[in-house]
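S2.1 Query sequence (Alpha-1,3/1,6-mannosyltransferase ALG2)
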Amino acid sequence: MGERQGTDRNADAGPSVLFLHPDLGVGGAERLVLDAALALRARGCRVTIWTAHYDPGHCFAESRELPVRCAGDWLPRTLGWGGRGAAVCAYVRMVFLALYVLFLADEEFDVVVCDQVSACIPVFKLARRRKKILFYCHFPDLLLTKRDSFLKQLYRAPIDWIEEYTTGMADCILVNSQFTAAIFKETFKSLSHRDPDVLYPSLNVTSFDSAVPEKLDDLVPEGKEFLFLSINRYERKKNLKLALEALVQLRARLTSQDWERVHLIMAGGYDERVQENVEHYRELKKMVQQSDLGQYVTFLRSFSDKQKISLLHGCTCVLYTPSHEHFGIVPLEAMYMQCPVIAVNSGGPLESIVHSITGFLCEPDPVHFSEAIEKFIREPSLKATMGLAGRARVVEKFSSEAFTEQLYQCVTKLLT
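Output structure tokens follow.
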């Protein structure tokens, strides 16, 4: 039950920090958890990650540099019926994981860092030696689901209450953007006295700097000069269809000669265990067929870090389609690779992208997106000028050094 990966190379160093995360996959939350763990280890902390599910083949490569331990993967992820009951199952899995760590794992730690599911926090209050708890709120979970029936409202009511109450039990609360901080205050009324600190995600630029980009011949048809890239999980809330709809609008705006030089790669996190990933991928494929875009779109599922870096290096622009995104790590990755970003003008991208300088912020509709895409075709030099500005912005505002220092100060402050 207690699967172990990696070794702790700082066994006798500084404070001991235990990370608790539901499912160590390839999403933005997982990227932040790994970056946080690596940052604290670099500052001399002893770090361990515990999770309910870990597949080294479906996770960021850096996870293999850290001690990752797993318990509770035998518990169900859903209650069936089309993926229903996922929230309850996530709570049960995290509470079990916390109980396992506290009473069966023989772990010594000073600070717990948990994210996504706060229901595990009360468990650590049971420890004989009080543990300090830091909770990283990516976004209030109660806002991520619809309540379109009385039964759903009834089902969510206790879950929503538990989320708010247990979040308030954390000794320190961090959020990923000013946007999320504002939503946190509006949503959790009983926590109006708490002011969460903003810790912007950063990039672990080492992997970007050391990677040698590969050729994209196997992904991009010959003769394609303008390569556009969408990177996001295959989830409906990511609004991936906006990229395809914008492509349809773009076709009407270009000459046939220019249109033949355009190609879109839809790259996204994909997990066969997640029903929505499977369904939405099929929906997007069907949409491509119906729009006669087959020769102009390539789908790439669960790509490697090296493939991602190669795509960012070779593409003209990244299309970032989610609305009200909590922060969004993809725009940072793109800008660091000197690749401009076209994103929806809401949420986190308002804090990372500078309109008309490092990319374009647009209304979430196909016409506005296609107009922004067209600019890169009419003015190819935009990629270089915006790319340089984007990299400078990431280095200045979202450096790993600033992230590491702020996180380390939060942890040490808890222990004083």
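The first strand starts at residue 3 and ends at 5. Residues 26 and 197 are 25 Å apart (CA to CA).
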